[in-house]
Amino acid sequence: MAATPEQEIAIRHLEQLNKVPLTKIPKTGKGRFPAPAPSNKEDFFHILVRWSKENKDTILKAVKNRVYGGQNGSPINWQYAFLAFMESATVDWNKVVEATEAYNKGNFPEAFAKLDESVANINKVAGFWGMKFQLLCDLADQHSKGHSILDGPYCGAFYSQDPEAPFIGVAFKGTNPDNYFEDAVDMDYQLQAATDGHVYNTQVSTGAYNGLFGSFGDTTAFESITQGLESLLKLIPNSTGKEVNIHVTGHSLGGSYSSISFTELTEPGRLPPGSALGDLYTFGSPRNGNNDFATALRDHLGPDSGSTWRIVNKGDPVPRVPWWFSDYIHVDTHYEISHDASPVKLPSEIDRRPDFDLPNPFKLGHHVSDAYYDALQKALAS
Prior knowledge:
alpha/beta
């Protein structure tokens, strides 16, 4: 019997994990929420459920409009930005080790069940939005070929169940501060020249570039993601006869992965057939490339693509990183949000040297998910 699209994705994922020794994967643990976590102690799953319920109308409007603000140059829509934030905050990780062990033993039904279990809470939250979630890539505890420290991304896709509004939101998990290997990716800020035509052969952060384009088994994280999207497109209810919009989002390290992935998707032939490129939404992202990289992204947004939005909570120190490398330039378009002021559009960094602005580590509270939630509530009310 032919595999379902979900099983196609699961088989590719388990085959990839099967190429990495299980000793490199934590066998125990408390699970990880998107980091940095909310600053209060309430269970994060229940926080996400509460946020979903409190913003039901906002989310439903964003879903109805496919989280798409229009072709490049259209104004930002904060309802769409809010749902993208919720996607970036919801991606999680859990029982992939058990799934891989079952797959190694040839117990495929158990392996598929364990993968489903690993994303059960994510799907519960997505259900409040009228959406579903599909894990695309979980390499957050794996090391690519030639590296003993740098790991890969955790990435999943939220997809609409409304046949009149087909879209996919690709979301990358942010940094877990308790995961040394993710911290190493954050801190590996040497600029690396991209090869093989990736991101227009510009220079980007070594850590994030290796996470996306380094070899994990027989493939790369980016290939796993695009192959997964191609399978997922078979599941999207679509009565419009139009291409399915794909937007990309991420918080913190997830913002770096998102910016580089989105740039790669603007290259010809990178998007899966039957899809169109929507918007990019990053939240609290560090700088992740040089001026040529930021320029390439800006210049390759065509009339059929969406816009790029770099959203920063006022006082968040992470977007100032790396302050010690003047060659790093942020991508466009920058909005500053705050819990007590309306959003402000700020100047582009492209073709100018960023101000030397030393981050204040005592303001990391401005980087956490609930700080962004409060600031986005103010943006929605503006």
